[in-house]
Amino acid sequence: MRLILLLTILVSHQSTFAQTPFSVQGTVTDSATGKPVPFAFVAVLGKPLGTQTDTLGRFSLLLSDTLQSLAFTSLGYESKVISAYQATGVRLRAQSQLLDEVVIRNQNPALDLIRRVIAQKAINDPQKKKSFQYRAYTKSVVKADGEVDDSTQTKYLNKYKARLKEGEFFVNESCVHRAYVAPDLSREYVEASRTSGAQNTTLLASMGLLLQPFSFYADIITFKGRRVQEMAQFANPLSEAGLRLYDFFLADSIVHSGGDTTFVVEFEPLPRQAFDGLKGTLHLHSGDYALEYVEATSLQKGNTLRIHLEQWYERYDKGWFPARLESTWQLPDFKIGNTSLLLHITTIIEPPLIDELGGDLTFSTKALEIAPDATFKPDSFWLERRPESLSEREKATFRHYENLSPFRRFVTTASLNIAEWSVGGVIPLGKNLDWNVLSLLDGNLYEGFRPMLDLNTSRGFSKVIRLQGMLGYGFTDKAWKHELGTTLTLNKARTTKFSFNYRNSVSEPGNVDFFLWNTPQIPYELIRNFIFSRADRLVQYKSEFSFRPVKHGTVFLSWTDESRQPTYDYAFMDCSQELMGDKLFHISEFGAGFRWAYGEEYAQVGRGDIVAKVASPVVSLHLAQGIMNAFRGDFDYTKLNAKVEYTYKNARFGESYFNFSAGKTWGDLPYPYLYNGRGAKVSATTPLIWTANHFNTMGLYEFASDQYLNLFLTQNFQRRLIPTQSNWFRPEVSVTQGFAMGSLRNPENHKGIELKTLEKGYLESGVLIDNLVRIKVSKIFYLGGGIGAFYRWGPNRLQDPQDNWTARIVWNIGL
User: Fold this and answer.
1) Staple 85 to which of 66, 159, 407, 661, CB 3.0 to 4.6 Å?
2) Beta strand pairing status for 89-92 and 131-144?
3) Of 80, 107, 134, the domain-final residue
């Protein structure tokens, strides 16, 4: 009995002792140096409890009993587990190597943590998966940025203010199916879309997807936009360049019940770093160093545009994947009265299917496509597919537009349609006909102002057959031009097409098109099309077959029969020494070409397409064989043309651009079929806009060759050399270097025009300073202007030193 009583007393005493709170205080130091280890993690094994050492390595933790064990971890040190009552002085041994065999001791733990995240990007980046597909719901809302300002009182503004107090300005919701195959083949298909105020408009659906980054793993975070605009780009802190550009701070750690820890890291650009950066917070998972959550805000100094993004990730059986994405575009100067508006985009992603797509998804470059019936889904569809209910303000927005008078509804729909047409470049004329308006305001120095009516049948008319017609008139040459064509789509997945076109127009001599219907890497290269002053009358019949045998490559096979008549004084002496003066030049030509454009993507906006992702590199090859006496062919020749473009973006140094082109002709050809010298100088006194990938100090038709090579290098430092905080003064510095070489056989055969050759080479260097002045247009975007200076040097420099210099105007459109 006494023994039982004694055991009862001992057990009671032990239970009472175990339930008494116990405070542990100690210090964590380096076992070799004795220096404190700051920001080390102290976790209670088996419990969601822990703390972190301060800058002197000290910690304090309240426990329920001394029998518990503590785990000590710190980046760069070996982990250690000891009993709580022994934890007053903890010595950690530094690891001999970590990440690329670099010894890391007593440094910023957040920096070491970011290095681990970067090392694991190949595993955790969702776009490094072999494939995935998912369905998503995206909601884009244009709304007031804060409280509605009542200071401005007009009848017109009060209507909008009342609307913004009760609801939002516009609301769009869309349902999307996306499929992806590594490394970069992506297709987004908008299955459904509806916009308050305009049922048939899909502009907000397209822009909502383009302006929403999918993940936070790319070295440069890019918000896509139309090609002629300046896209918003930010150096990612989770990149090798980000390690040198950003400051990191380990703000907190969250210990979970399973023993995992979430590290909370804050980041912001280092002082005096001239680049467009971000400031925000990262939540990083300790087990696999993956992103759990990111919040970031743009820090574009001196710019009214502000972009804020948040992303949430979830872990599935095959890795982490985005679950919810939010982006906010703030435009403080785009206002209703004194009330600023913003665009808020939310994307909710359903659980994905990872690594379950086999083979190629498609060969098409259409990365974003809209279903023909996307805007005609019933309410029952939205009730089923909408993952979360609309807010009361969003519901009120839809009700507001539904209750508008017919006239007010027409005005609202028209405003959205006009915005969509201006972005996509296509105005629908009913269900079956489209009007391409991009060539409406066109012209050049030879034709003068040349408006062009460009019509083609839509997909509503046929998904297989496309008919096209163009009619234009030059007000300077006083001549009509017209084109007719038809295209058959034989296989949509591989973009297999057959086309036939008739063209009666003018064409610049000595120019190589290189498939110019594809947007060039630097859009300012197209300015050359506006300044040509020498032309041939052209009548052309061309048939072409094209298909995509590989993801990014297109093969072209063509037959061309054409005649050219120079409109300038020119005669050609052919191989028989017969002078061909006023005679037309006829060719019959078989052509084969290949264009490889890595990563090129287009997105549908309304009925038009825009460039969603610029390709790099781009390789173009074209082989042509002229056949004499076939149809009307007067010449037997072979031509080989090649072109390579490459763009490299670096967070520290800006954007580097490389352009190489070369061509060679076997056989004697008249001047219209030679190569001009890529000159862009009209006269010594005519101020012109900078023309990319051309020699701005070279006369338009100063040189001619039957074999040539050109090389253009451009380094755009953007705002890194002259950082400012001004909205109207944001200079961007670029340097350029051009080189050309060529030769011409039998120059004496070309009569009536003066031709110079390039055997000795041609060199031109230049400096561009863009955005010296920025003017706000329509409170939405900026028109920027600057100046460039170019110098002609080397063997072909001119005798008068002043003639070797030229100045150019530089312009751009940006947010």
Assistant:
1) 66
2) unpaired
3) 107
